Amino acid sequence: HHRRLDAALSRLTGKPFGEAPAKPSKPSKPSFSSQVHPSTEASIGGYAIRGELSHRGGRSRLLKGEKEGTEYALKLVADSAAARREAEVLRLLRRKGGESIDRHVVQLYDVIDDVLHDGSEYTALVLRLGGATLATQAVGLTSPMDKKHALCELADAVMMLHEYGVVWGDLKPENFVQCVISGNPRRLALDFGDSALLPHVEASGAADAAIPREFGAGDACTPPYAAPERLCAARRGESIRASEAQDVWSLGMTMLFVLTSKVPFSELDDDAIIEAMCDPALRVDVSHIQDEAARHALEAMLQRDSDRRPTMAEVLDRAYFRGGVSWRPSKLMREVATL
After folding, report:
1. Cα gap 231→221, rounded to integer Å
2. Which of left, alpha, beta for 280 (phi over 0: left; psi -120 to 50: alpha)?
3. If we measure between CA atoms, which residue out of 277, 267, 253, 230 comes closest to residue 135?
4. Closest-CA residue to 195 (of 317, 311, 93, 297)
5. Short-list 287, 315, 286, CA closest to 301
6. How does DSSP classify residue 242?
7. Residue 327 has what DSSP assignment?
8. Tens digits of per-residue pLDDT, 176-230?
9. 257, burial (CB in 10 Å: exposed 0-12, middle 13-18, buried 19+)
10. pLDDT score of 3
11. Helix (H, G, I), strand (E, B), or coil: what is residue 177?
């Protein structure tokens, strides 16, 4: 174990990312998939079940449903509190952003309590049906412009969340899914069962007050993409205040994955990744990234000191993202105010 960890630390701090031979990474299960597997239930809450899209162990399952000729994704969540948290985050975004959020976030249509499926009880979230995730698409993004477009869409989504006071918390390629909006393909953010609000956001009601302002040690995050301060707090069994900087780090690691088509830390298990990330000496080396603008953006986003990371507005103002598909409410409002 220590030999593997030392080798990973050496590689990440002094050699190009992915240069050392790595064991084949375990395939990640996408949130949405084109493969549909048989389901034992005929219908749930009036939605005819057409099969199962994915199964994430005991945490959640994703079914394909249909109602009145329209297809939906039914996300079955075993933890009812997490399901309610996700629903409240999506409702908050809807209240604050209206229909504009549909360009960035998977839409919530319904919440169904006390769903019995295959002998287990779930809360069902009825969502827009999506296709492939960024995790599965990344290998097929061969041109630099295709990669840049996908990353600009993701950065736009993170910017929108932060504008409305939400920290995604589990930002990773698997949680960015291809959908069709008004006939046009677009990638949307999903999975907010472990999201939190920025501490300065004032609650507009009991529902908002129920969304935490910090991440608990038990909240889900994915070690290859999670910020080091979150992993270290979780390792100590402590909560940590939600901050934009945590999503910025995760965006940087996702960007590194898209640019290299290599899963971060693929040769380590989760415990070894957490141990490596909690080493103060660890730095993620990006010197091998040929695109200068992309490399400079990564260097800023992947600073170990969270106070030195840029905000999302500053990320989108960097050369790599500038001129993309950026939706920047704060900048637009500032420009309108000067007219």
Report:
1. 8
2. alpha
3. 253
4. 93
5. 315
6. -
7. -
8. 998 877 778 889 999 999 999 998 887 777 667 779 999 998 888 999 999 999 9
9. buried
10. 42
11. strand
Q: Is residue 274 packed enough to be buried (19+ CB in 10 Å), middle (13-18) or exposed (0-12)?
A: buried
Which residue is associated with the tokens 């698409």?
137
- Per the listing, tokens 């493969």 go with 35
Q: Is the pLDDT of residue 336 over 80?
A: no
Contact present, 90 and 105 (Cβ < 8 Å): yes
DSSP state letter for 40 = S
CA distance 232 to 215: 12
Report, as an integer, the average pLDDT of 20-33. 38
Q: Are the C-beta atoms of residues 126 and 74 closer than 8 Å to each other?
A: yes
Highest average pLDDT, of 91-105, 127-141, 264-278, 289-303, comes from 289-303
**Helix and strand tally (H, E) in the chain?**
11, 12
- Residues with Cβ within 8 Å of 97's Cβ and at least 6 positions away in sequence, in order, are 160, 164
- Token pair of 8 as six digits: 């990973």
Name the token pair of 23: 């064991």
Spell out a b/e string for 164-190, using b for 16 or more CB atoms within 10 Å of the CB, else e: bbbbbbbbbbbbbbbbeeeeeebbbbb
- Which neighbouring-strand residues pair with 188? 177
Q: Which of 317, 311, 318, 310 has its CA nearest to residue 332?
A: 317
Can you read off the two tokens belonging to residue 34?
């084109």
Q: 53-79: per-residue pLDDT in tens?
A: 875 655 788 999 999 999 999 999 999
Reference 159, options 339, 289, 327, 45; nearest CA is 327
- Per residue in 125-166, pLDDT tens? 999 888 888 888 887 888 999 999 999 999 999 999 999 999
Measured distance CA(41)–CA(80) in Å, rounded? 20
Cα 19 vs. chain centroid, distance in angstroms?
26
